[in-house]
């Protein structure tokens, strides 16, 4: 018995040393401040100084997009009221407020190769929303796709990484190619209003139809006006999926 115990202890010590070496070669970076996270804190994913750096959305939310509401008298945020509550998606939720810290983190996550942030974000999404997503009967997770060319340039799709991390936590399948992006649309800011919506409509199409899904959830990094998520949800509805939820890492404030 003691022999077995000794063996286990030895193996654990070896693994620990291995982890420490990995930590030096590939330091896990804190998604808030981007400094390496010290080894004992790795499980947390965020360095001890930054634990309060991101603000979880709490209190009254918009019934459709989940945005934190400015006042509690309303059911919908200003954005959803303006478009008469018409969305292709059924309902959605976001984890964090899109504050300056979040903006910087998302920038590094998307454009500066910090793909390791996905682990922490996926865990947090699972902790906050995992049970609700399961209770809603969701059968599969669909990340907002990037155009193949853009994904090749960047080396990854940040929404795909989030979806994969979340799916692994709650053990739900992720369908990365269920919807594909067939048009490399210009960055959102370059286009306004109707133009943007028209452009987006044709940007997505079904890429995989050998799996029959009824209820799905779209995953993306940021929800701003919801036009991208609506465009993806529209394609899914047309393909016969009956309910499409969404979940994003962050969402802008109601104003
Ligand atoms: Zn930090
Ligand atoms: Zn809303």
Describe it.
- The chain is of the alpha/beta class.
- It folds into two domains: 19-53, no CATH class; 56-251, 3-Layer(aba) Sandwich (Rossmann fold).
- Helices cover 40% and strands 14% of the residues.
- It is built from eight helices and six strands; from the N terminus they run H-H-E-H-H-E-H-H-E-H-E-E-H-E.
- The chain has helices at 2-25, 78-82, 100-111, 117-135, 148-154, 158-170, 193-201, 227-238, and strands spanning 91-97, 140-143, 179-181, 204-206, 215-223, 243-251.
- Strand 5 (215-223), helix 8 (227-238) and strand 6 form a beta-alpha-beta unit.
- Helix 4 (117-135) crosses helix 6 and helix 7 runs parallel beside helix 8.
- It is globular and about 65 Å long.
- The N and C termini lie far apart (65 Å).
- Bound molecules: zinc ion (ZN) (2 copies).
- One zinc ion binds next to loops.
């Amino acid at each position: 018995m003691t022999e077995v115990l000794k063996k286990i202890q030895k193996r654990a010590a070896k693994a620990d040393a291995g982890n420490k070496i990995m930590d030096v070669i590939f330091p896990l970076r804190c998604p808030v401040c981007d400094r390496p996270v010290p080894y004992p804190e790795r499980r947390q994913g965020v360095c001890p100084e930054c634990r309060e750096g991101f603000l979880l959305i709490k209190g009254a939310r918009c019934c459709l997009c989940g945005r934190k509401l400015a006042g509690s008298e309303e059911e919908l945020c200003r954005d959803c009221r303006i478009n008469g509550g018409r969305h292709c998606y059924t309902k959605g939720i976001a984890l964090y407020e899109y504050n300056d810290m979040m903006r910087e983190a998302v920038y590094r996550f998307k454009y500066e190769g910090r793909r390791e942030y996905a682990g922490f974000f996926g865990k947090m999404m699972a902790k906050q929303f995992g049970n609700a997503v399961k209770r809603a009967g969701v059968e599969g997770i669909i990340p907002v796709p990037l155009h193949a060319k853009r994904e090749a340039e960047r080396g990854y799709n940040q929404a795909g990484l989030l979806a994969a991390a979340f799916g692994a936590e709650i053990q739900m399948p992720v369908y990365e190619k269920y919807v594909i992006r067939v048009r490399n649309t210009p960055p959102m800011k370059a286009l306004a209003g109707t133009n943007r919506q028209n452009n987006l409509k044709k940007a997505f199409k079904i890429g995989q139809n050998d799996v029959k899904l009824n209820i799905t959830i779209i995953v993306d990094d940021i929800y701003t006006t919801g036009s991208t998520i609506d465009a993806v949800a529209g394609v899914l509805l047309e393909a016969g999926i009956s309910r499409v939820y969404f979940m994003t890492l962050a969402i802008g404030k109601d104003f």
